[in-house]
Design brief:
221 residues; mainly alpha; 15 helices; globular
């Protein structure tokens, strides 16, 4: 997929005016995606857990939208931290996932044999979980730091562009740290998150080598 730098530039201008413009975020990511989404999918298939998740094809957003399931996890768990992350927000995992699907190069994914819908949606679902694992809230600075973290993991230039814009607004230290943390951490996408939700958050962070953020004033557990 050819990169659309003009579309990305327009998206960045919109994002500068309104950092909560989710459509602009997706436009930037899709415009600069190139082959990164396919490379990440191929990496997913090479991982035993990732391959099993692909073959199962279950929608993680169905779990994330099940309030009773999210509420069932004990204090200190990944699920409890995700529940706290959602508090006071109007996130709809399915809507966000479908928005990314509309922006992604689905025909190219289909030609390569990838699930045309499941993979982009799964990427978006794990992004919300990554907020919790990395300890970044959904405030503009937290989003910028997580974009840097995600760029280190998925290598999409759209993530890098948004992270760079955040560094200009909020300073480079926290954003650069986000990238470094993403480089050191295990790959978050090849995890069975439906199972991980019941586990202690501290244990999961330790196992995935996600160190504390020192340059971001975390408001998450």
């Amino acid at each position: 997929m050819a990169r659309d730098w003009l579309k990305a530039g327009r998206g960045l201008l919109r994002l500068r005016r309104d950092y909560n413009d989710t459509a602009a975020v997706f436009d930037i990511i899709a415009a600069l995606e190139g082959p990164s989404l396919w490379r990440a999918y191929r990496r997913m298939r090479l991982d035993p857990v990732g391959r099993a998740l692909i073959e199962a094809g279950e929608e993680l957003s169905d779990r994330l939208m099940d309030s009773a399931w999210v509420a069932s996890h004990p204090l200190g768990s990944v699920g409890a931290a995700y529940r706290a992350f959602l508090r006071g927000k109007r996130f709809n995992a399915r809507v966000l996932a479908d928005a990314l699907l509309e922006s992604a190069d689905v025909p190219a994914l289909r030609r390569r044999g990838a699930p045309a819908a499941w993979w982009p949606r799964y990427v978006t679902d794990v992004h919300d979980i990554a907020h919790v694992i990395a300890g970044y809230d959904s405030d503009p600075k937290g989003e910028g730091c997580l974009m840097a973290f995600t760029f280190a993991q998925l290598e999409g230039l759209g993530y890098a562009a948004i992270a760079a814009g955040s560094a200009l607004l909020f300073g480079p230290l926290a954003v650069a740290e986000g990238y470094a943390r993403g480089r050191r951490a295990a790959w978050l996408w090849a995890e069975d998150w439906a199972a991980r939700f019941a586990e202690p958050l501290a244990d999961v962070r330790r196992r995935l080598n996600v160190a504390p953020a020192r340059h971001y004033a975390a408001r998450l557990a």
